[in-house]
Design a protein that fits this description.
Length: 162
């Protein structure tokens, strides 16, 4: 995705309503210029970004941007299903629209050493896990499930350092 230049005031001149985004459930969401900008910046980080990464990027475009600006924008994106917060490593990642697909929660493996993430969408893995949660009276979060797990490359380097 291309990033828009710093001239966000030009946004109003565009005719194709760039601030309308579809949530994962298909509802249209209007984004303010700042939320749109944070959303676009987040696309630069396919494997997730910390809020302060986004703040630094945003400050390059809007020098007076403050941490609450970024947090509020991220909260909005998360609340509307456009982004997801990976709680165990405090990172944010874009949620992609899987049009037509059933929105089954994804299982996300998060490495505590390198913060690398890997999504598992294998229903044979997910379905029993989700059923077990439901059997315990839990309602799985539509944002997905996180599991902390040392990734193969960290495991290798940790193992070889011993
Ligand atoms: Zn790792």
């Amino acid at each position: 995705m291309k990033l828009r230049s710093a001239t966000t005031h030009r946004e109003t001149e565009n005719t194709h309503a760039p601030t309308q985004r579809k949530t994962r459930r298909g509802a249209a969401v209007s984004l303010t210029a700042t939320r749109q900008l944070v959303f676009e910046l987040l696309h630069k980080y396919p494997s997730g970004a910390k809020a302060y990464d986004l703040l630094n990027d945003l400050r390059a475009l809007k020098p007076n941007a403050s941490p609450p600006t970024v947090y509020r924008a991220l909260d909005f994106l998360v609340a509307n299903g456009l982004a997801r917060k990976i709680h165990c490593i405090s990172m944010f990642i874009v949620c992609h629209n899987d049009e037509g697909k059933q929105s089954i929660p994804k299982l996300l493996l998060v490495c505590p050493h390198c913060a690398g993430m890997r999504a598992i969408e294998d229903n044979q893995v997910l379905a029993p896990l989700i059923n077990a949660l439901i059997a315990q009276g839990y309602r799985p979060d539509h944002q997905g499930l996180e599991i902390g797990a040392v990734c193969p490359s960290c495991d290798k380097s940790l193992f070889s350092a011993r």
